[in-house]
Amino acid sequence: QVQLVESGGELVQPGGSLRLSCAASGGSFSTYAVGWFRQAPGRERNFVGAITDDGTKTYFAASVKGRFTISRDNAKNTLYLQMSSLKPEDTAVYYCVTGVGYGYWGQGTQVTVSS
Predict the structure, then answer these.
(1) What pLDDT, on a 0 to 100 scale, did the predictor assign at position 18?
(2) In order along the chain (115 residues), what is the average pLDDT of each group of 10 residues?
């Protein structure tokens, strides 16, 4: 059983940057790929990006590619999402996920992009 706790969400102006963190505990974090999803108000959850278990490969949704990066520190059991050039449409609750079939989810952290 893996527990995930996201942090770092806040209000940021358009064009700004923000880094989210996801701390994992209770399982073999380093053996799983890890990813980020987001859910805007009234909309379904969408894939944002993911990173392989060894951190050598990353994948992103077209809407964030070139603006967001993902990294992980397996020694600290922590996942990061670095977001830049933020847009109002990036406003959402961001969730980190891991496990077989992304079976483990955090509780989410709110990111609001607004002037």
Answers:
(1) 98
(2) 95 98 89 95 96 95 98 95 98 95 94 97
Closest by CA position to 82, among listed 39, 20, 13: 20
Strand ranges of the sheet holding 78-83, from the earlier edge strand across to the other edge: 3-7, 18-25, 78-83, 68-73
Across 1-115, where does the E strand assignment appear?
Answer: 3-7, 11-12, 18-25, 34-39, 45-51, 58-60, 68-73, 78-83, 92-98, 104-105, 109-113
Give CA 60 to chain center in angstroms.
Answer: 11
For residue 62, the model assigns a pLDDT of 98
Residue labelled with tokens 């700004």: 16
CA distance 20 to 25: 17
Determine the pLDDT at residue 37. Answer: 98
What pLDDT score does 16 carry?
Answer: 98
Cα-to-chain-centroid distance, residue 20: 7
